[in-house]
Specification:
The structure holds two protein chains of two kinds. Chain A is mainly alpha-helical. Chain A is built from four helices and no strands. In chain A, helix 2 (24-39) packs antiparallel against helix 4. Helix content of chain A is 64%, strand content 0%. Chain B is α+β, with helices and mostly antiparallel strands. In chain B, a hairpin with a 4-residue loop joins strand 2 and strand 3. The termini of chain B are far apart. The chains are: A mainly alpha, B alpha+beta. Chain A binds chain B through residues 24-25, 28, 43-45, 51-52, 55-56, 58-60, 62-63, 65, and chain B through 37, 39-42, 44, 57, 59, 61-62, 91, 93, 149-150, 152, 195, 197, 199.
Chain lengths: 89, 203
């Protein structure tokens, strides 16, 4: 049985290797869960060139205000499992 | 086979075909329906300082929407939507600035715990935001671009239209040195750019 951190790492590897085009809202969920899981709630405006994309990313993080870092890891794993239809255990 | 028999067989064949076609259930493709996903609504703003008009960017963490629609066009899904944005959810990348804006700008306005209003969009890429702030109801002319599920709305507001001169002066006083440029002049602009974007749900 893998620990939450191990499963999260595995989920991140799978997500990073994905080649299919995902809808923007799904990509934003990936971004926000990952940021919260790894950086916590230290919000700051992303440094990308597109101000619109930065605003959407920041907003996606605001929406996770009720989640803990571990819950964000679980949500990230669930998202990968739903997209790949593959259980990470 | 006589000509009469042939004609009868052909007639039956045509009638049978017509009957078969008419019994088939017509499958109509449902038109795309757009609806507003509250969590994707992003509201950003830009204020300006110094004579050189240096931008100060911010967002709001919480935007509450009601009265939105389900529609076959993106702009109709948003048209008439009512919003309420708590001033306490204001966010810039600096906590000290957030506090000043909440207390010394919005805090000195009349009953402005939230920014409330209605979004009115026309089908030609224009519209307005009917905004209540500082006890004053005024409109901000906007333009918008709808591209698939993404709608971007932009407008510029003049704070004087909401009688916000005192609130602006209060902020300018608190930030006197911070709003001073290389020319030594401290300036806080009464112009604020508003940008809203939403990624609509599609069914």
């Amino acid at each position: 049985m893998q620990s939450l951190d191990e499963k999260f790492e595995r989920a991140f590897e799978i997500a990073s290797a994905m080649t299919q085009k995902l809808p923007p809202d799904t990509m934003l969920r990936f971004y926000a869960y990952y940021k919260l899981a790894t950086k916590g709630k230290a919000y700051s405006t992303p440094s990308g060139e597109s101000s619109l994309r930065n605003a959407f990313k920041l907003n996606a993080m605001f929406q996770l205000n009720d989640l803990t870092e571990d819950e964000a890891k679980e949500k990230y794993i669930e998202l990968v499992e739903n997209i790949t239809q593959q259980k990470i255990s | 086979m006589t000509i009469l028999k042939k004609t009868t067989i052909i007639s039956f064949a045509i009638l049978f075909s017509l009957a078969t076609i008419s019994c088939k259930k017509e499958v109509k493709k449902e038109p795309t329906q757009f609806s507003v996903e509250q969590k994707t609504i992003t509201v950003k703003w830009t204020g300006y300082k110094t004579t050189d008009k240096i931008a100060v960017n911010g967002q709001f963490k919480e935007i509450n929407i009601s009265n939105s629609n389900i529609s076959s066009t993106a702009f109709e899904a948003l048209n008439g939507a009512k919003f309420s944005i708590p001033v306490s959810s204001l966010f810039t990348d600096e906590q000290e600035r957030d506090s000043k804006l909440k207390q010394l700008f919005f805090g000195v306005m009349e009953a402005t715990l939230s920014l409330t209003g209605t979004l009115n969009l026309n089908n030609d890429g224009t519209g307005n935001i009917d905004l209540l702030m500082n006890g004053v109801q005024q409109t901000i002319p906007v333009t918008y671009i709808a591209s698939g599920q993404l709608v971007e709305i932009n407008g510029i507001m003049n704070l004087d239209n909401w009688n916000a001169q005192s609130a602006l002066a209060s902020l300018a006083k608190a930030c006197f040195d911070l709003h001073k440029g290389p020319d030594g002049v401290s300036k806080t602009w009464n112009e604020v750019s508003i940008g809203a974007a939403v990624y609509l749900s599609k069914k």
